[in-house]
Amino acid sequence: MYRFKNYKIISVKILKIITLVVVLGGLMIGGNFVFSQSVSSDYEINQLNLKIQEQKKQLQDLQSQQQQYEAQIAAKRKDKVSLSNQLSILDDRLAQAQLDIDAANLEINKTNLELQKIQIDSDNLDKSIETRKQHIANLLSSMYEQDQVSTLEVLLLNNSLTEFLNQAKYLSDTNNEITGSVGRLRLDKDKLDQNKIDLDQKNKDLNGLKDKLQQKKDDLSYDQANKSNLLLTTKSSEERYQSLLQQAKREQQQAETDIANTARILSQKMSQKDKNFLDNGNNTIAWPVPQNVITTAFHDSGYPYRNIIGEHPAIDIRAKQGTTVTAAADGYVAKVKFDGSTRYSYIMLIHGDGLSTVYGHVSAVYILADQYVTQGQAIGRSGGMPGGIGSGPFTTGPHLHFEVRLNGLPVNPELYLP
């Protein structure tokens, strides 16, 4: 009876060792399974990389074409201002805008491919981590069981010292395998965490590219409307085009003179109390319309009427016709030029610290001269629609002409805007 019991104990120990062998075999099989998955995923990732490289090449080709159009436009702007030349510039701008749209779409496609690549890698890492965790758990369980077997019992279970030493080496190799698996598990986990960060950033990039695409589409529509308006307004007549340019020049010069004189006269007329009131107000400059897309910059070299009217003393901010215009800072209404006709209309506000702002192409006015306004207060509505109220003889489309002046002289509004 005693001998039978001992044989039973030994049989259990043998089963445990067999279990360990099976587990190690499972690790090898599981490793092959992970390897198989990795090979499949690597193939998909390589295919995505090839597509991404192709997208990059197409983007480089588009950028090269864009540079050619940019050079053509710059050269034409140096030529004499004429209707045909201006139409040619607009045609180049339209072609360039379409290239911008194509480039934005390519960027979106490329980013989507990069997202797919990261997602495939993350899925593969998830599976690898779960498989490796299970094997480590099995190995640890088997090692624990083996720890319960005494050296004498291991010797009894082996027919020779050589078999005993082989068994001991097998256990040592298993311990090393656990250590290595834990290390690889930690590396996989770190890479998975980094992938999550990369995915978040790529999704943000994607949203930004979609906004950029919409802006490029708006630019294309803007230039298309500009060309249509130019043809309609001039009736394809060079003589009429030159006449309108001269009218625009006269109106711009008159506005410049009126604004400068108003600022000088008010500075002399205002009491020290009024000046202190303005200086103590909120003189930080805010955006006067909600869409902060600048279509023409301050002293923009691409301003189409630069050679006729002079430097662009403002920034043009994209705004739909009739957008509410708000005071950029606390101030005093110095001048309101508005009669409901199609002549150039504007509002001028005086602020503290020598600053003033001008809001051009307004289609409606909500305030009167000689009153105080606060930052954010509605003062009128934007215009700029060709042939619309307050637009003037030459506008390129709906927008707000926004000037910032320091001691009466135009300065770049972007230096003051948030």
Automatic annotation (TrEMBL):
It comes from the Bacteria. It holds the Pfam family Peptidase_M23. The keyword Cell membrane does not apply. InterPro entries: Cell_wall_metabolism_enzyme, Dup_hybrid_motif, M23ase_b-sheet_dom. Signal peptide: none annotated. GO terms for molecular function: metalloendopeptidase activity. Gene3D superfamilies: 6.10.250.3150, Glucose Permease (Domain IIA) (2.70.70.10). Residues 45-121, 192-265 form a coiled coil. Keywords: Coiled coil, Membrane, Transmembrane, Transmembrane helix. Residues 311-413 form the M23ase beta-sheet core domain. The chain crosses the membrane at residues 12-35. PANTHER family: MUREIN HYDROLASE ACTIVATOR ENVC, PEPTIDASE-RELATED. This is M23ase beta-sheet core domain-containing protein. It comes from Candidatus Falkowbacteria bacterium CG10_big_fil_rev_8_21_14_0_10_37_18.
